[in-house]
Design goal:
single chain, four-stranded parallel beta sheet, ABC_transptr_periplasmic_BD, six-stranded mixed beta sheet, alpha/beta, signal, TAT_signal, ABC transporter substrate-binding protein, Rossmann fold, 2 domains
Length: 297
Amino acid sequence: MMTRLSRRRLLATAFAAAATLPHAAFANTPRRIVVAGGALTEIVVALGAGDQLVGVDQTSLHPATVRSLPQIGYLRTLGAEGILSLSPDLIILSDQAGPPTTMAQLRGTKVPMLVVPESYIEPAVPKKILAIADAVGRQPEGKALAATVEADLQAVQRMVAPLRRPRVLFVLSTSNGAVLAGGRETASDAMLRLAGAQNVVTDYKSFKPLNAEAALAADPDAILLPDHSFEALGGKDGITKLPALAQTTAGRAGRIYTMDTLYMLGLGPRIAHAARDLAAILHPGSTLPALPARAWL
């Protein structure tokens, strides 16, 4: 079994590779940046480099100002032609970006490219910030931002430490009577841990269908959904009528919660505030102090 220390070393190695391989091409401060990955776009703006953005993907929704930028498509179905038509001098991509053919085409150009690895075992937002700050020529701002986010995360952990850890089922969507539930090594799993809760799904990674029998066996104290799924399923009333969830403890008690999708699952510079707000939702009756207001919220 991988230990916490070995996980951290593996993550550090991944970030070192992502951050250093293209650095010879990062000698000049980029003026035309294209980003694929909502959290990465948030980081670029939080670093003060928002005016250097010339294109973003469909997952880039925050801050609202980036929504008026040229769109390059959905994160996993990008096209090289559309990206290169914006004449970027730096491309920043999540390692979730695709398809592989597009990634290969982009690597075959002379345009500097930073691929930022995601980690759901240990949320790695400060490391992402430092890697991107280096690429966009904002190292001092990156150090300050990373330190602030890390301090806020530590504050949240102190808040939730004494609280009871509710058992939560994260439902991404539903299909054919089953719920698509988040398992280990997902953004939802990471956020539940940061918010002082337990993920009831521990026997698989990623997202998989969970039928009524399995959901009842898991018997969560609470059910959590992203806002788009919550609304599509008819809100709390509609969700409590789903056969896969109706007989669970959470379903019978009506403990169905939701949060903005990107805010909750983005794992960007807002991660600490999102974790604090999620903790407040999952621990009703608790009084959690507010985190300091930040310019990037």
